Amino acid sequence: MSSRLEWLGSLPLEEAEAQLLTCCASRRWARKMVANRPYLGELGLEEAAVAGIRELEWPDIEEALAAHPRIGDRAEAVRSHGISQREAQWSSQEQSGTATASVEVLDELTARNIAYENRFGHVFLIRATGRSAGEMLAELHRRLHNSAADERETVRAELADITVLRIRKLLGLL
After folding, report:
1. Cα 62–Cα 74–Cα 29 angle in degrees, nearest 5
2. Averaged confidence pLDDT in the chain
3. Which residues span the domain enclosing 29?
4. Contact between 124 and 114 (Cβ < 8 Å)
5. Which residue of 1, 100, 106, 150 is surrounded by the most CB atoms within 10 Å?
6. Same-domain check for residues 33 and 88
7. pLDDT score of 79 more than 70
8. 29 touches 65 (CB < 8 A)
């Protein structure tokens, strides 16, 4: 067991929950993750995180989505989104593929984000790490044609991917 995993396991309940909420902003998910401590290894923690997201009701997913800014939002907009400094920093790093995007691509991302939000009622969520703005825009275009049920499953999978990445960051593994 890593010292960072031991650190997480030794935190008081409220502090452990606060730390995990920076990985996934669903209170139900964070409470369950804290209640199931200790985790014997990083892989066990990651598997529990994914399983916990699969078990969430849709309102819990929406709670988590509320902590995610739009893809392509500039740093100022992310900071004003009401999320922690750590989450804002992680989001900025994760969306670094948009940092060099042209104004035209960013404008198209904004327009498609709005269309997506109007269609599905929540922010477009994608694991942005390692993706260019063009790749994210193409995926946004594609997903606008999903059914509501298919899109919910896609969002749940993307949230799980993002959560695992953030857990790894929290533990200093990335």
Report:
1. 25
2. 90
3. 1-56+156-174
4. no
5. 106
6. no
7. no
8. no
Q: How confident is the model at residue 69 (pLDDT cuts 50, 70, 90)?
A: confident
Tokens of 138: 């193409």
**Cβ neighbours of residue 26 under 8 Å, at least 6 residues apart?**
53, 56, 60, 61, 63, 64
Domain assignment present for 61: no
pLDDT tens, residue by residue, 117-136:
999 999 999 999 999 999 99
124 in a structural domain = yes
Alpha-carbon distance of 138 to 160, in angstroms, equals: 21
Residues 6+ apart with CB under 8 A from 106: 72, 98, 133
Verify that 105 and 46 share a domain, yes or no. Answer: no
Is the pTM value of this prediction over 0.70?
yes
Q: End-to-end distance of the chain based on CA atoms, in angstroms?
A: 17
Token pair listed for 142? 């594609």
Half-sphere exposure for 144 (CA within 13 Å, toward CB): 15
